[in-house]
Amino acid sequence: MNSRHLLSGCKRVLAAKLQVPLNIPRRSLNLHEHYSLGLLDEEGVPVPRGSVADSPQKVRSIIEGYGLTDAVLKAQVLAGGRGKGHFSSGLKGGVKICYSIDE
Known about the structure:
By secondary structure, the protein is mainly α. It contains three helices and two strands. It has helices at about 5-20, 35-40, 55-65; strands at about 70-75, 95-100. The chain has a two-stranded antiparallel sheet. It is elongated and about 60 Å long.
């Protein structure tokens, strides 16, 4: 018996025991949040303002361009959720609320 047949058999047994359908949909399209928001915006769905930055200088110029004093920075992570993200400063969780432009 090869591994493919063994895996198929295990799936059938597990599906029967858990009483779930055998063909559970699989996530096969991964989009960063900013791409998803862009697509929604193009279709007229209201979305929060946002921009992509890859440096602290870019973050500062974006915040100043929006005329804001505070902002929320989000790491874009395709590893199964934002909670797995981290910033180079060591901050974990992938979300940072900044209450001043210097923060």
